[in-house]
Each structure stands twice: as structure tokens, then as C-alpha cells.
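Design review, sub-item: ligand-bound model
Attendees: FS, YL, KQ
YL presented the inputs for the BV8 complex:
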Amino acid sequence: MSFPLELVQTIRAVKDVAVLTGAGVSAESGVPTFREAQTGLWVRYDPQELATPEAFRDNPSLVWEWYAWRRELIAKARPNPGHYALVDMEQRFPSFALITQNVDGLHQLAGSKAVINLHGNIQLTKCSQEGILVEKWEDTGVIPPRCPHCGGLLRPDVVWFGEALPPGAFNAASQAARRCDLFFSIGTSSVVEPAASLPYLALEHGAVVVEINPSETPLTSAATYAFQGPSGQVLSALVEAVWS
Ligand code: BV8
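KQ shared the predicted structure:
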């Protein structure tokens, strides 16, 4: 795979880089994305219907089971070459921020340090009443399990549709997008707000924006460069082209 010389020179010259990743970065690790068909049991549910406070209020056991199924899938998943290319890139720039919409923890597992989790972490559980993280609870067979402190329903520590993002995370992500010289948007359908606004914030502040996705997205026409391909392959080829 070849890259425009101008882009290779830009990547070699810039000091401040920000990256936004979505579910597509974990696709080559076998983790289903949101908008591609949900496999097996979940084929009849729309993730946007399940990842909401209303779904949890109306059918807490269904939502808990959906996350248990996803946690099992993710527990078997390993980082792919795209995750490792981003670990490599993090060492190459004086300032680097990895902003992820993913809740699978694969960036951290691969060794990325400067990770901003916009939408939480599926491996963490919190009390739906107190909002505090809960590590251990009695397994009484009741689903969802209950908070050992207050008896409230336990839930995954992720941001559902209609819920606010952790303010610190989104502020840090916005700052990174404003100050960077180069912004990568990788493996995201670029439709979920406010994360989807970040590449435009970078563009407004004069950054070069590079999109990597096998398909077109609403960002594609606005991006400075758009590479259509799987992130594991494209990112590995890019690291090779710039630093080998
Ligand atoms: C909020 C965690 C306000 C849970 C997720 C305008 C402004 C603000 C809000 C809104 C707005 N308009 C609408 C809203 C509401 C809503 C929203 O954006 N709706 C959309 C559908 C229009 N936003 C929210 O509700 C957000 N909250 O704004 O709150 C507020 C403020 C104050 C007080 C109260 C409320 C919260 C959004 C977060 C929802 N949580 N996840 C969980 O995981 O279960 S969203 C989830 O979907 C992901 O985290 C991700 O963010 C999002 C999008 O998914 P992607 O990562 O892009 O994945 P997707 O499947 O869509 O696409 C995969 C892509 O990969 C594809 O493009 C594919 O081509 C590509 N691909 C495939 N293979 C590969 C690949 N790419 C590379 N390599 C490959 N091999």
C-alpha cells in the first residue's frame, strides 16, 4: 500500500497528534461492531435499543445478559496489528492522545498509555443507584446482580445513548482535537455525537485529518486524506512507510 509523499512528510514533521478510534479498530480482533450484523442470539436486537437507560429500566436482565455476552467475546479477543501500530505511533510524537469510543480495553491491553475512554469500560461494573464502581458481589443467581452496599441493580460502567459522557474525558478529547496538527479518525461510522464532532474541531483548528475505514462515512468528504481499508493493514503499512 502506498501513501502520498506529502502525508508521509507531514507525519514526520508534526509534533502533536490525536487519534479517534471506533469499533472498527477491534473488528480484526473478532469483536463485533455496532452497525454490522450482531451475531447469534443478538441478531434481532439493535444495539442502539439495548445500550440505553430505558432498555435497562424496562428489561434489566436482557441488557445485563447482552453485556455478559459481549464481555465473554471481548475476554477472548486479543489486540490486532492496528492496536499495536497505534502503540508504536504513541512513542513517535512529543504529544499524542488516543481517544477511543470503544469499551473493550484492547488499546490498553496492547500497551497504549495516553488513552481517553469516551464511553467507559465494559469490564467495569457500577451500582445504577450510587454510581460507584463495584468489584465484588454475591452471586445469588439473580440477574442483574445487586449492589452489596444499597441493593441497587448493578450495570456496566459504560455511557449509554442519552447519557452524558464523563466530562473530564470529553474535555480532554476536545482539547487534544483543538491543539493537534494531525488527527486520525479510525474505524468509526462517525455518526455518534459528541465524539463524531472531534475531527471537525481538529479541521477548524487547522489540523490535517486522516480517515481510515473500509467504507465511506459522513467524515470522508471533509477529511484531508481518506484510506479505504482495514485499520490493521492500513496502519501497519503507514508505520512502515513513514518510519522504516
Ligand atoms: C450524549 C458505549 C447528551 C455503550 C456507545 C448531538 C449532540 C449530542 C448528542 C446527540 C446529538 N445527536 C444525537 C445525540 C444522541 C446520541 C447520538 O449520537 N445518537 C446517534 C445515533 C445519532 N448521543 C448520545 O446519546 C451520547 N450522549 O450526547 O448525551 C447529554 C448531555 C448532558 C446530559 C445528558 C445527556 C452518548 C453516546 C455514547 C453511546 N455509547 N457505546 C456500549 O458499548 O454498549 S456508542 C457506540 O456506538 C460506540 O461507543 C461508538 O461511539 C458508537 C459508534 O460506533 P462505532 O465505534 O463508530 O462503530 P460502528 O459499528 O458504528 O461503525 C464501525 C465502523 O468500523 C464502520 O464505519 C465500519 O465501516 C468500520 N470498520 C469495519 N471493519 C473495520 C472498520 N474500520 C477499520 N478497520 C476494520 N477492519
